[in-house]
Amino acid sequence: MTRETNLMYDMPISEKTVTQNSIKFSARNVQVHYGDTHAIKDVSVDIEDKTVTAFIGPSGCGKSTFLRCLNRMNDTIDICRVAGDIRLDGQDIYDKRVDPVQLRAKVGMVFQKPNPFPKSIYDNVAYGPKIHGLARNKADLDEIVERALRRGAIWDEVKDRLNEPGTGLSGGQQQRLCIARAVATEPEVLLMDEPCSALDPIATSQVEELMDELRENYSLVIVTHSMQQAARVSQKTAFFHLGNLVEFGETGQIFTNPQDERTESYITGRIG
Q1: Strand 80-88 to strand 37-48: parallel, antiparallel, or no bridges (unpaired)?
Q2: 272 domain-assigned
Q3: pLDDT tens digits, residue range 6-49?
Q4: Cα–Cα dist 118/124, whole Å
Q5: What range defines the domain where residue 215 resides?
Q6: How many CA atoms lie within 13 Å of 164's alpha carbon, on the beta-carbon side?
Q7: Does some domain include residue 164?
Q8: How far is the C-alpha of 26 from the C-alpha of 252, rounded, in Å?
Q9: 75-122: per-residue pLDDT in tens?
Q10: Counting beta carbons within 10 angstroms of the beta carbon of residue 42, is it exposed (0 to 12), middle (13 to 18) or buried (19 or more)?
Q11: pTM of this prediction exceeds 0.85
């Protein structure tokens, strides 16, 4: 591919090269069926710790379905069947002994549309730590809430109105509140399903900067329809098409020198 393709995605390649990190998630031969529909076909991938991994591909390609396998959100869909092997730090997350609620404390999720609870800003963040028993007393809880709001890059904007409803914040602030809520339970992985698709450009930029900061402590996996966003924030990129994982590698390589012609066709706008 041409140098122009690289420039189109604002990607300083040298900054995108990452050192080899430990493997956080390992997936092998994953299949997902919704009733008779074969949505994910034999996907195998390793997701590294302290790295932003982007899932890209056309609508309906399976990227969000696969993302939801990583914290067993697909369990909530009656007609969904997941087969194959998915391990978090070597542990099979589909083992019958694994409690999905506890798993989701370790693998947090931020959704496409900001969805704060109809509670105060404080209670939005405190809810998870309370139900998981992470605070011994009110002082502990105050500390957890402040730390989470700081990690969500929203503390300075809300510290004087913690008792006001989270739903009263702007869209971008609500999404950062949802990120703070997700990190409050001290997860190890953050899944983000198109986290900026409902946000304006300024709010999108703030969330993207936050992603880069969060990867110092977490493994982040994002689904995005914006190839520019994938190029800006991720170190690894996976391209899905028709339920298949077509190509996976360093973001710089995927966008400038893809090995599969379907990847190149998607990146250059010929499909998707």
Answers
A1: unpaired
A2: no
A3: 434 454 433 444 456 799 999 999 999 999 999 999 999 999 99
A4: 8
A5: 3-12+22-267
A6: 11
A7: yes
A8: 22
A9: 999 999 999 999 999 999 999 999 999 999 999 999 999 999 999 999
A10: middle
A11: yes
